[in-house]
Design brief:
The chain is α/β, with parallel strands linked by helices and about 350 residues long. About 35% of the residues lie in helices and about 25% in strands. The strands form 2 sheets. Strands 1, 2, 3, 4, 5, 6, 7 and 8 form an 8-stranded mixed beta sheet that branches. A 5-stranded antiparallel beta sheet has the order 11-10-9-12-13, covered by helices on one side.
């Protein structure tokens, strides 16, 4: 689809539908053209979030153990597509797609088959799956569209899976909907990322209710060099530099896969750069804490956090009150994502 053929007015209407979404919104794609427009821009931005979330999960030791992918509420299939691009197809038996829009599921299947012609891709007739024991279930940008009853039913269904991976918008409401899923599944799953322990999430505490668990993905260079993205940002009034998201990776306790380093801390959101120091929100097994990192105390660590090239996982080796004195980024993620 060339820039000349982009129906910008239609793209504005599609975005308006999504911004007006309430619980159980029904089907909001009316044609393949709608889906293609959505996938070209909004779908790619979601894919960039998934790529960053997978990188963050890898840094925490996440591995793909499942042989089957189930993409629940698949939309245009960007979650499955991005995951497979990151891990390859060698250990994947099949991908199963479900969406309340059959048109969207068909579009997603065509996209996946085009990208991965040797992969088995099928469309589920029902939203409920009886057999998920060897599956990873992907849920992407869906929880805010579901009623509390549907979210509860979804959670019961997800409890049968081997692995779960959610990526949701990075606003307060979606983050807390994700925490709701985490707390409902914690007896049957080990949280792998972004959580650094399997204790109750500290953001459920009243004192922390104003916080939310979110991160920022970095868009690729094309978002700033291509004219269609520049026009997209102007027309949609979207800051292309900002890609906030929330995510959650869980493994069934049957895998006995818990985070292997309980000394790690997760930096939430975007550290605030002040004159001579950085303010950061840190989550670890001791709860949620706001710290300051003085540039004069540790210039190299301060620079690492400012440049945001090392992920959000750190070890604080020396803390004095609310000041981090010593620390280091967690080891970089291994390039090999599959467990083999």
């Amino acid at each position: 689809m060339s820039e000349e053929r982009i129906d910008w007015d239609q793209l504005v209407r599609i975005r308006k539908r999504f911004l007006e979404i309430e619980e159980n919104p029904g089907v909001y794609w009316e044609s393949e053209e709608d889906l293609a427009l959505y996938h070209r821009f909004f779908g790619q931005r979601i894919g960039w979030k998934w790529k960053d979330a997978i990188k963050q999960a890898k840094q925490a030791g996440w591995l793909l153990h499942s042989q089957r992918i189930v993409d629940w509420g698949c939309g245009t299939g960007i979650a499955s597509q991005t995951l497979i691009e990151e891990i390859g197809t060698s250990n994947i038996e099949s991908v199963t797609l479900w969406d309340h829009s059959r048109l969207a599921a068909s579009f997603a299947k065509d996209k996946l088959v085009a990208h991965f012609p040797n992969l088995s891709v099928n469309i589920a007739e029902e939203s409920e799956f009886e057999e998920l024991s060897k599956s990873i279930v992907l849920v992407s940008h869906a929880l805010n569209e579901l009623s509390i009853e549907v979210r509860s039913e979804l959670r019961k269904q997800l409890s049968r899976a081997q692995q779960l991976f959610f990526v949701e918008p990075g606003n307060r409401r979606c983050s807390h909907l994700l925490i709701e899923q985490r707390e409902g599944l914690i007896d049957q799953f080990n949280p792998i990322a972004p959580c650094v322990c399997n204790q109750a999430c500290p953001m459920t505490q009243e004192d922390n209710a104003h916080h939310w668990c979110h991160f920022f993905a970095k868009p690729p260079i094309e978002a700033f060099t291509r004219s269609d993205w520049s026009r997209f940002g102007r027309i949609m009034e979207i800051d292309l530099r900002s890609l906030p998201y929330s995510f959650l990776a869980l493994d069934s306790i049957s895998l006995a896969n818990e985070p292997d380093d309980r000394s790690l801390s997760r930096v939430i959101g975007r550290p605030r750069q002040r004159k001579g120091f950085v303010e950061l929100l840190s989550c670890d097994r001791n709860g949620l804490n706001q710290y300051q990192l003085q540039k004069r105390d540790n210039p190299s660590l301060c620079k690492s956090i400012k440049k945001n090239k090392s992920g959000s996982l750190f070890t604080w080796s020396s803390i004095d009150g609310d000041r981090v004195l010593e620390g280091s980024p967690a080891k970089p993620a291994d390039d090999q994502l599959n467990s083999g």
